[in-house]
Design brief:
This protein is α+β, with helices and mostly antiparallel strands. The chain is built from 4 helices and 5 strands.
Length: 167
C-alpha cells in the first residue's frame, strides 16, 4: 500500500501495472472504510442490546423472551392424513407445518416425543393446533388454527390418523 509507484526519476515503474495497483489500492481503502462502518453499527447495536438488558433487569428475562419466540416456528410437518380420521375431521391436510400442538412448540417438542405424550394424555379431549398452510401455487401461506380430538375406534390405527414428521 505504501510502495512508491514511480521511479526515483519520477517515471512510472515498468515492473508493475500502475493503473491496476491504483485501482486495487482504492478498492482496499473502500473496503476498510466499509468495515469501519459495519463495526460502528455492530458496536451501536451491542450498546443498545445491553441497555435493554439493563432496563429489563437481567439476562434471564431476555432468555425467557427468546424462549417464547419458537411458538411461531414450524417444528413438524403432516406427512399423511387418513380419510375419516380425527386428524381429517379436524381439517389437517398433508403438507401442513405445525407450529403449535397444544402446549408444544419448536422450543420444547424434544424430537416429537412430547407430542406423543400430549396426544395420549388428551385422548377424547380437544387439543388446539396451529399450522402454517400453503394456500396457492404462488406460495402464499396462512396460519390456521384447528381443534383436534384424539380418539380410538375411528376405524384405523392410532389416536390421530395422521403421520407427523419432524422438520
Amino acid at each position: 500500500m505504501n510502495t512508491p509507484l514511480i521511479t526515483p526519476d519520477g517515471f512510472p515503474r515498468s515492473d508493475i501495472d500502475v493503473a491496476q495497483v491504483r485501482i486495487t489500492r482504492a478498492r482496499i481503502i473502500r473496503l476498510k472504510n466499509d468495515l469501519k462502518a459495519v463495526m460502528a453499527r455492530i458496536e451501536t447495536a451491542l450498546y443498545e442490546y445491553h441497555a435493554r438488558l439493563k432496563e429489563r433487569g437481567s439476562a434471564n428475562e431476555v432468555a425467557r423472551d427468546i424462549e417464547r419466540k419458537p411458538e411461531h416456528i414450524a417444528f413438524a410437518v403432516v406427512n399423511t392424513v387418513v380419510q375419516g380420521s380425527p386428524a381429517d375431521e379436524a381439517g389437517l391436510i398433508k403438507g401442513d407445518k405445525i407450529i403449535k400442538f397444544g402446549s408444544i412448540h419448536a422450543g420444547n417438542h424434544e424430537r416429537l416425543t412430547r407430542l406423543g405424550t400430549v396426544v395420549q394424555e388428551n385422548e377424547n379431549s380437544p387439543i388446539e393446533i396451529t399450522v402454517i398452510r400453503e394456500i396457492d401455487e404462488a406460495q402464499a401461506r396462512a396460519e390456521v388454527s384447528l381443534v383436534l380430538t384424539p380418539r380410538q375406534g375411528w376405524g384405523g390405527k392410532g389416536l390421530l390418523g395422521c403421520h407427523i414428521l419432524p422438520l
